[in-house]
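does this look right to u?? adenosine-5'-triphosphate version
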Amino acid sequence: MKVERLSTGCKALDDMLGGGIEKDTLTNVYGPPGCGKTTLCLQTAVSCIEEDKKVVFIDTEGGFSRERLDQISSDDSEGILDEIILIEPDAFEKQKENVERLDKICEKKDVGLIVLDSLVTLYRLELNDGNTRKINSMLAKQLSKLSNLSRKREIPVLITNQIYSDIENGGVELVSRDIAKYQSKCLIEMKKFEKGKRIMIMRKHRSKPEGKEVQILITENGLEKPDKSFSFL
Ligand SMILES: Nc1ncnc2c1ncn2[C@@H]1O[C@H](COP(=O)(O)OP(=O)(O)OP(=O)(O)O)[C@@H](O)[C@H]1O
Ligand SMILES: [Mg+2]
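got this back:
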């Protein structure tokens, strides 16, 4: 059976994903600051609007930029902005309420994409030694709601995640660790190199092999396929 997909507006990434992000599940993109997570969210939002659907964009860290949206979209951003329901929670409790309201919004509006950028900024601010269990449980519930909503309504959910160095294993680890990994049926890692060079690596997918990677360039237009492959030396 063919799974419906939404283009990310980035040909190289779409090819790796078999056409785009899957419409009935959660895609989780993680990587260091400035690697291009928000750019990918904006670009996928533009692609969704081109399919004549609305986008719910939950921005927890002031990453949403009209100017960047203008650069990425070929249409005028006024028209594009009309199709984006922008929600800007400033506390983890508010993020929770926003996630709980999503089903109602999707009932009333023709939503074709839900973005949560980032899942963990407010979670991180709230977390302390005394509330780990409670805050982790709140995060797990949000992910479960998002996942169910996506499955039930066939609306793709794109979430971003931050990382920290995992000294023991010599790699990087997601801020929310296994909580988000489990609920995300597609996990993509972004790595950052100089001069706009990036690599995106498939870390988990339901129907694609893990470890596949693709080179990307960040330009004025967003995330693009480089004319020729680059080296990092
Ligand atoms: N017009 C542009 N032309 C080329 N590169 C740009 C342009 N605008 C932004 N960038 C690059 O995009 C990168 C930032 O991308 P983005 O904001 O998507 O990263 P991010 O992963 O969301 O970061 P954070 O973790 O801080 O939210 C920076 O490297 C910046 O130089
Ligand atoms: Mg960002």
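Residues 37-38, 63, 117 surround magnesium ion (ligand 2) (CB under 6 Å). idk if thats expected tbh
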